[in-house]
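User: Here's a structure from my thesis project, written as structure tokens. My advisor, Dr. K., wants to see whether a designed sequence matches the one we expressed. Can you design one independently, without my sequence as a hint?
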């Protein structure tokens, strides 16, 4: 044990019981102990709480329950657990505490209450036990809490109290819609907690969150520190929840997915923007209910449904072959908020179900083709696993046919109208009624309610502005996943939303790295361009996550997903770029390893011309402003004049698409370790680099037969982690 928590006992009744029951691994146990030690040694308040920072669906609850056990063993008598506002979550938390502390509750050592159901005639015998109160972060709940502590049971004021604020990010789902009202309500809630705190003797505060930037995005106007860095509200201390080895998060969906042939590269399926329109409301002209299995404009929705059935069938077949219990699987459709849209989506899914059952019974050609296509898609990723054998098509086909014939599929709408209790099991988790469950819904799905064995996620929430943590909270495909389930998992959304989620993931990852390095004391730089085109600090509150770019040492940026203009249109511009590049190189005074140091003004001029020659495909962007802004920022970071290293290569013959049909995205890395990227990173120490690759653009490679320049911007090694906001909320 490290010296920081040597004075703690680990053999107290509560923790000993939990540790034995759950077999905590050492890193998790140490995280719990460090948190407890710091809660004892540090003065925490609701403004300067201790912070437990985990990842979405990564075992944060398990960790804070361990901390609760330690708290009870070290003189705390009452834990007040503040949860986000849904009854489903309260029910889930209540069930979880009962399950975890079963032994203590049976032996009258602990009482757990939902504050709204707490009796007002508890006896001294009961009050002498340890208490856990679950309190929804909402006015009535807090009033009941205040009444219980100050009036009904005033003795509680003398006990040691630990507040645990679960999902402490204030940016809850509704935040983006009613900003003012929410800030007001948060203040009301904060002031009620504050009033209560004053009446208590030395209470402690622990926040549990998965979104580190909630610390930067505080509703109060914040002080700008030395004109550049925003200081978050300081947690009194921060502990990182260890990530267990089965955790699947954004690094799988957004980083590893870029490696060709990696299991993760098969997960994402692009959905056409027009298909999301179809999901909004019933439109008899667009959707013919009797032609759902063949209609073109719903190809991805159909693919998603069939992939889900085939994926679940593959897994169930594999489990049966290994003599294991066959699991039930789930699939989420989350595209709209409105009840009408949910009702229409339910009708659509039932329509698919009916036609698929008929097709399975008649074994139509169409049915065989659909199953075959899905099998071919899914088996690519199943084949990447050595330990789990891939079943042959005939076996899977039979499994799918049988599953549909026996009605193994069921779909339910999950929204606030529907009484959640009929959808939840005794543990407060979504009930999986049949082997294949499709859930259609809106925000209720993203409030932390656990959904097991999720292998399909059709996501299309396209709010005008993705703000704060909403999107990450929607990432229900994160969590502990067996890798064999991951192999049949697919994630469907538009290219645009996928791009935004990727940016948010990068943002999240960099802020978390800053925490791990202890860098949150230094802060992270937030910048934007103002109207006069100068780079200035911006308030993190005002950032639209959809327009974020995360800059870090040696990060590369390049346009992807484009076609060139027609030869006759761009020929002149390309000649002009050729001349500018030539001139910039000839005038450069400093050269190193085949790179030339040129003024940033010249580089921006070249990029502006390149921008004119490329036509971006839907969902892909090449914002010239953003590139110029980032160049200005990076090149001025080097204290002297603004310069950029320019590297060029000619006669390149890259194809427009990779083998798997995705757009080529790494023209700068031909040959291992010898590519331009390696060179650029070598020279880009104090100054950024721009690689200019002159491509032949041949028709047989998918281009239009016109040569063109493909730029790749590389940040220098010596740059601080920076958030560049291309657009901000004005207000």
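Assistant: Designed independently from the structure alone:
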């Amino acid at each position: 044990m490290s010296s920081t928590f040597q004075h703690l006992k680990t053999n107290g009744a509560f923790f000993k019981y939990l540790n034995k029951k759950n077999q905590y691994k050492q890193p998790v146990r140490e995280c719990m102990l460090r948190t407890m030690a710091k809660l004892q040694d540090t003065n925490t308040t609701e403004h300067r709480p201790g912070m437990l920072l985990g990842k979405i669906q990564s075992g944060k609850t398990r960790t804070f329950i361990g901390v609760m056990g330690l708290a009870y063993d070290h003189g705390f008598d009452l834990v007040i657990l503040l949860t986000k506002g849904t009854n489903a979550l309260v029910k889930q938390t209540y069930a979880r505490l009962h399950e975890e502390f079963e032994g203590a509750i049976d032996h009258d050592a602990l009482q757990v209450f939902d504050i709204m159901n707490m009796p007002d005639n508890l006896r001294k015998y009961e009050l002498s036990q340890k208490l856990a109160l679950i309190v929804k972060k909402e006015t009535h709940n807090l009033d009941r809490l205040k009444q219980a502590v100050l009036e009904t049971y005033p003795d509680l004021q003398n006990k040691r109290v630990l507040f645990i604020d679960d999902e402490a990010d204030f940016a809850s789902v509704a935040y983006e819609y009613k900003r003012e009202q929410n800030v007001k309500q948060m203040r009301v809630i904060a002031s009620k907690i504050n009033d209560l705190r004053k009446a208590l003797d030395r209470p402690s505060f622990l926040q549990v969150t998965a979104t580190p930037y909630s610390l930067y995005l505080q509703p109060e106007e914040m002080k700008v520190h030395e004109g550049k860095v925003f200081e978050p509200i300081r947690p009194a201390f921060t502990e990182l929840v260890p990530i267990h080895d089965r955790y699947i998060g954004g690094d799988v969906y957004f980083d590893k997915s870029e490696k060709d042939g990696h299991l993760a590269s098969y997960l994402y399926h692009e959905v056409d923007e027009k298909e999301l329109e179809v999901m909004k409301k019933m439109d008899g002209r667009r959707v013919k209910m009797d032609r759902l299995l063949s209609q073109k404009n719903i190809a991805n929705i159909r693919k998603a449904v069939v992939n889900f059935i085939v994926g679940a069938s593959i897994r169930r077949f594999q489990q049966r072959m290994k003599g294991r219990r066959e699991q039930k699987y789930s699939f989420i459709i989350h595209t709209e908020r409105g009840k009408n849209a949910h009702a229409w989506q339910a009708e659509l899914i039932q329509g698919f179900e009916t036609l698929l059952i008929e097709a399975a019974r008649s074994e139509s050609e169409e049915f065989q083709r659909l199953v075959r296509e899905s099998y071919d898609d899914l088996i690519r990723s199943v084949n990447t696993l050595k330990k789990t054998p891939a079943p042959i098509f005939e076996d899977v086909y039979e499994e799918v046919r049988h599953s549909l014939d026996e009605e193994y599929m069921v779909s339910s709408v999950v929204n606030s109208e529907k009484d959640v209790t009929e959808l939840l099991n005794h543990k407060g988790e979504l009930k999986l009624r049949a082997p294949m469950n499709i859930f259609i819904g809106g925000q209720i799905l993203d409030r932390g309610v656990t959904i097991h064995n999720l292998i399909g996620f059709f996501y299309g929430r396209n709010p005008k502005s993705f703000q704060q943590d909403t999107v990450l909270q929607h990432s229900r495909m994160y969590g502990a996943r067996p890798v064999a389930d991951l192999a049949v998992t697919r994630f469907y959304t538009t290219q645009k939303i996928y791009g935004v989620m990727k940016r948010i993931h990068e943002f999240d990852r960099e802020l978390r790295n800053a925490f791990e390095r202890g860098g949150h004391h230094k802060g992270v730089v937030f910048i934007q361009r103002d109207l006069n085109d100068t780079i200035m600090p911006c308030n993190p509150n005002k950032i639209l996550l959809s327009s974020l770019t995360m800059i870090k040492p040696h990060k590369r940026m390049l346009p992807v997903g484009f076609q060139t203009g027609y030869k006759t249109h761009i020929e002149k511009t390309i000649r002009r770029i050729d001349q500018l590049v030539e001139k910039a190189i000839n005038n450069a005074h400093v050269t190193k390893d085949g790179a030339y140091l040129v003024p940033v003004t010249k580089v921006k001029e070249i990029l502006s011309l390149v921008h004119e020659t490329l036509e971006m495909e839907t969902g892909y962007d090449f914002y010239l402003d953003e590139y110029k802004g980032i160049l200005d920022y990076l090149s001025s970071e080097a204290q002297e004049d603004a310069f950029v290293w320019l590297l060029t290569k000619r006669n390149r013959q890259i194809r427009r698409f990779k083998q798997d049909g995705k757009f080529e995205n790494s023209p700068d890395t031909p040959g291992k370790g010898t590519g331009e990227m390696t060179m650029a990173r070598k020279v880009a120490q104090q100054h950024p680099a721009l690689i200019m690759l002159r491509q032949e653009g041949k028709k047989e490679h998918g281009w239009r037969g016109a040569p063109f320049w493909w730029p790749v911007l590389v940040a220098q090694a010596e740059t601080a982690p920076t958030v560049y906001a291309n657009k901000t909320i004005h207000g």
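When you compare it with your expressed construct, this may help: The radius of gyration is 28 Å.
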